[in-house]
Amino acid sequence: MPNGRANTVAPVSTPNEPSRGIVRVYAYYRFLLSIVLLGIYLAGFADSILGTFSTELFFFTAAAYLGATTISVIWLISRKFDYSPYLPFLYLLLDIVTLNLLVFASGGINSGLGLLLLVTIATGSLIYTGQLPIFLAAIASILIMGDTVLAVLVFGAKDADFFQSGLLGAVLFFTALLFRLLNRRLQASQTRAIHEADQAAHLQRLNELIVNRMRTGIVLVDTSGQIKLINNAATELLGGPISRNRVSIGQSLRAVPELFKQYQRWQTFPWQRCPPIAIAAINGEIQCNFARLDEAEERHTIIFIEDTRSAAQNAQQLKLASLGRLAGSIAHEIRNPLGAISHAAQMLGEYKHDNDDVLPLTTIIERHSDRVNNIVDSILQLSRQEAPRFQKLQLDIWLKHFIREYHNTQREGSIIECDKQESGLQVLFDPTHLTQVVTNLVDNALRHSEQACGQAWVKLQVHRDNEGRLPCLDVHDSGPGVDKAHLNQIFEPFFTTSHGGTGLGLYLAKERCEFNYSTLSYCQETISFDRQSSNVTINTVERANGDSSPTCKGFFRIMFAHPDQLLPASSS
Length: 572
What we know:
By secondary structure, the chain is α+β, with helices and mostly antiparallel strands. The chain has helices at residues 18-43, 55-78, 87-105, 116-127, 132-153, 162-213, 232-237, 257-268, 308-350, 358-383, 395-409, 431-453, 505-515; strands spanning 217-221, 227-230, 277-279, 284-294, 299-307, 391-394, 415-420, 426-429, 457-464, 471-476, 519-530, 535-543, 554-559. It has 4 domains: 2-198, no CATH class; 214-308, Beta-Lactamase, CATH 3.30.450; 311-383; 391-571, Histidine kinase-like ATPase, C-terminal domain (Heat Shock Protein 90).
C-alpha cells in the first residue's frame, strides 16, 4: 500500500465513464483478432509465420480463443456491458496467456506476434490507473522470457533471441507506464471538466433561482416581441399566477397591450423615460425600463418591471409621518383651549340665568366643541399610524366574527346581510386596520340607508374581481349614493357632506387599505330596495367614470392583494 495507491486498481464501472467504452471496443477487438488469426492460419496465408513450431498447439489455442471471445462478446451484449470491475482484468490476463502460447507455437519472438501484447498492455493501462497495468506488463514479460528459455532448454531451439525478448519486455513496461500516465492525466482533465460543468450548472441554477426570486420583474423579448424569458415577479406583475391572462414564455408581448404599447414607444423614442402604466389584473401601476442586448445573430430587449405600489406606499408613509407629527403637535395645542371652552360652556349652562337665550347658546358651544374634539381625535389617530401587522385572514370567517362583534357593541335594530359568493377566500391584512375600515364603511352605509328608507341596512358581498381574480369585499347600502360632483372628492381629507362629520373617515379608511397593499374605491350601481322584505336587487354595476346621471346609487369596494403576490417580507 505505498503512497496510498492500493485502492486505485479497480476501474470505474459506471456506464458513463470512458473505461466502459474502452472495454466495449476491446471486447470487439478481441473477437475480431481471434477470427483473423484463425482465419489466416486455416487459409494458409502465413504458413511460414503462424504455427511453425507447433501447428496443433497454434490451432487449438486459436480455436479456443475464438470460442472464448465469442462467448464473452455475446454475454456482454446481453448484459448491456454491465460487468464487474475486475472482469476486464481477467480478459486481459487471458489474452496475455493466449498470445504467449501463439508466440511459442509460432517459433518465438521472431514471429512478430509478440507485438500484439502492446495493444493488450496499453488497453489495461487505459482501463486501470493503479498498479495493475504494471502487473500485467510484468506477467507478459515473464511469459515472453519463459517462452524463449523453454524453447532453448526443453525443445532445443537454436535460433532463440534473448535480446529481442528482453527488449519486448522493456517495451511492454514502457507502454504500461506511458499509457497509465496518459490515462491519469485524461482522468484528471475529465474530473476537472466534470467539476467545472457541475459548477457551471450550479451557477446557472443559482442564477435562475435569483432571477425567479427577484421582486423586480424581468422579461426578455426578441425583435418580433416574442417572450424568451420571464421570471415569477414579471408573471405576477403582468397578470398574476392565478389570472386567466397569465403571461408565459413563447407568447407575444401583445398579450399585455399596455406593455406592448410602451415597448413600441421606447423603440421610437429610446431616450424618453416611460411613464407608469396601470395593470388591471393587479389593481396597480408598474414602471418599465427597457435595455437592448446586442448579440451576434439576434437582438434582444430586456424589460425591467417594478411595482410602484411599494415605492408609493413608502413615500406615502413618509408624507403621512411628517404630516402626522405636524398635525399631532397642532392637535395637542388645540385640545387644551378646546377643553377649557367646553368646560366653561358646561358651567355656563348649569348657572341659572334670567335670559332664556343662554341655554341654546351653550348647547351650540358644546356641540361644536365635541365636533372639533372628534376632529382632533381623528388627527391624533392619523399621526399615530403604525406599520401594518399582516395576518392571513379567511374573509368569510372574519366577517362572521365582525358582524357578531358589531351587533354587540353598536346600535341595535340594524340589518347586516352577508353574501358569500365564494367561500375560503384568504387575504393578507392587519386585522385591526380591517376592522376599522369595515366599521367606518358599515357605519356610513347604515346611516345613509336609514336616512333614505327608514331602515338601517347594509349588505357585505365577498367575491373575486372579474379581471384580476383578486378577492373583493363590497359594501352596499340603500342610500341615494354619491353625487356626481363629489365623486373625485370623497376620499379627500376633511371633505364631508354631513353637518356632523369630520371628513376624515373615508380618507383614513383608504390610507389603511393602501398600507395593506389593497385599494378602496367607489363603484356605481342601480338598485331597488324593499323596506318590508329588506331585499336588494342589483341591476347594473359599473366603475365610476363620470358618465352616469348626476345622482347615482353606489357601493364601496375593498380590493385585496393576493396573499402570495408582491407582499413585504415581514408578512411571511
